[in-house]
Design a protein that fits this description.
The protein is α/β, with parallel strands linked by helices. The protein contains six helices and nine strands. Strands 1-9-6-2-5-3-4 form a seven-stranded mixed β-sheet, with helices on both faces. Helix 3 links the parallel strand 3 and strand 4. Helix 1 packs across helix 3. The longest helix has 26 residues. It starts with a helix and ends in a 5-residue tail after the last helix.
């Protein structure tokens, strides 16, 4: 029975989530703050795990036609996220730092080599919240690509009691998106992690 319910959830929940995401997108008042210019050049793209409800939509709004993929965990909730992001033409790369790490990193580098942008949550899939993993930094340093940072703040929102305090803006709220492109060129791993963490914390919901 549990397996059946999970299978049913994988079919039913993603389209419902996507419809809800789009309703909140179109009913909100949005303002984009480009802290640095963002062109069509290839990036590694990052957002916090608790911002996944809106940030992928902001990414697709800015890079409308860019081929892209996202590193998503192999847990059940990861499957729901993967299926939902597919509606935004973002294909999943399944794995995490704890499970399937080597395989998913190889797939990510293959995607980058093919010109795709790779989206990743540095604190995913299980936290701690707003922690900085090695994945995004390692890919950016090795590929010599800049990092596309997406954050947002909403005037009114729900915040779930999950480990990441997942944020869902309320209908008709005002949402400020903060977009920037960062270069990690010449930085050591630890220095780059501190730098990216500081930048991502500047415009996020605490």
């Amino acid at each position: 029975m549990k397996i059946f319910l999970r299978q049913l959830g994988q079919v039913v929940i993603p389209p419902l989530l996507y419809v809800l995401m789009r309703i909140l997108w179109y009913t909100s008042s949005k303002k984009f703050h480009f802290i640095t210019p963002i062109g069509e050049e290839q990036h590694i793209c990052v957002t916090w795990h608790n911002e996944l409800f809106m940030s992928p939509q902001a990414y697709r709004h800015i890079h409308k036609k860019h081929k892209s993929s996202a590193i998503i965990s192999q847990h059940f909730d990861g499957q729901l996220i993967a299926s939902t992001l597919s509606f935004l033409s973002i294909r999943p790369l399944r794995g995490s730092s704890k499970k399937g790490a080597k395989k998913v990193l190889l797939e990510a580098f293959r995607a980058l080599k093919n010109g795709e942008e790779v989206l990743i949550t540095p604190d995913g899939p299980r936290g701690p919240r707003h922690s900085m993993g090695d994945g995004a930094i390692g890919m950016a340093v090795k590929s010599r690509l800049p990092i596309f940072v997406m954050n947002y703040k909403a005037s009114s929102y729900w915040q779930l009691k999950s480990w990441d305090k997942f944020v869902i803006p309320k209908p008709f709220s005002k949402i400020d998106f903060y977009i920037q492109s960062l270069s990690l060129e010449g930085m050591e791993m630890d220095e780059a992690k501190v730098y990216l963490h500081e930048k991502m914390m500047e415009h996020t919901i605490a």
